Amino acid sequence: MLADPCTLPIRSEAAPVPCVAPIVIRPVRPDDESRLAAFFRGLSPHSRQRRFHGGVNELPPGVIAQFVRRCGSDGLGLLAVVTCSGAEVVIGEAAYAIARPRTRNAEIAIAVADDVQGRGLGKRLLRSLMSHAAANDVTSMYGGVQPDNKAMLALARALGFTERRDAADARLRRVERCLPEPSALATLPEGAAAI
User: Fold this and answer.
1) How far is it, in rounded angstroms, from Cα 172 to Cα 170?
2) pLDDT by residue (tens digit) across 159-176?
3) Cα separation of 36 and 194, whole Å?
4) In 85-168, beta strands by DSSP E
5) Cα angle at 32 between 31 and 35, to 5 degrees?
6) Distances (CA, A) of 192 to 25, 184, 188
7) By the number of CB atoms within 10 A of the CB, which of 4, 53, 94, 189 ranks highest?
8) Could you give the count of Cα atoms lying within 13 Å of 106 in the half-sphere of its Cβ?
9) What torsion, rounded to 10 degrees, do the Cα atoms 31, 5, 2, 109 define?
10) pLDDT in the model for residue 166
11) What is the rounded CA–CA span in Å between residue 126 and residue 157?
């Protein structure tokens, strides 16, 4: 579990009054189904559209079940959580999944609660995904980003991703990046630009 010393004011469905709490980034667990469903429901329609590339109001329980069981060498789901009034509240989600079993290329996706966007949480989530993926022999990561999602495109560039037109979906930009060898991660100082 990666503890984040940063604190941010949080408003959410599960915490109706603002609170200030330390942010913890941790792997998703099977008991996170209701928290993750509440997180996706609490996103603005615009943020849900950016995360899922389409109009989504509610994710089916089977899809949420798949999200919370994504942990291992072929993928990982991470949550950024805070504890408000004794209950964990999800304020960010990021995941990667190996696209094809024979390759070690992973597709990534990320979402941050509207109230805390633009404060660096997405960067911390994506860095954590990249570190885990590299340690599990993932050679590269990629994702589809809507062209008007300037914040995500800037984040990807800041973390060394390249950008091009997505050949599979002309509505999207494709960001991708090769990952360093896991041994290279151990020699990088905290906060280094490589990851």
Assistant:
1) 5
2) 999 999 988 888 889 999
3) 30
4) 87-98, 105-112, 140-145, 162-165
5) 135
6) 19, 11, 6
7) 94
8) 30
9) 70
10) 87
11) 12
Per-residue pLDDT tens digits for 8-20: 444 444 444 456 6
Helix (H) or strand (E) holding 78: strand 75-84
* C-alpha–C-alpha distance, residues 171 and 129, integer Å: 25
> What does pLDDT average to over the chain?
80
pTM of the model: 0.80
Q: What is the pLDDT of residues 99-137, one digit of tens each?
A: 777 778 999 999 999 888 888 999 999 999 998 888 888
Domain boundaries, the chain: 2-187
Buried b (16+ CB within 10 A) or exposed e, 1-30: ebebeeebebbbebbeeebebebebebbee
CA distance 184 to 94: 23
Note the residue count of the chain.
195
| 22, pLDDT greater than 90 | no
Q: 182 is written with which tokens?
A: 């896991």
Give 92's DSSP letter: E
Architecture in CATH for domain 2-187: 3-Layer(aba) Sandwich (3.40)
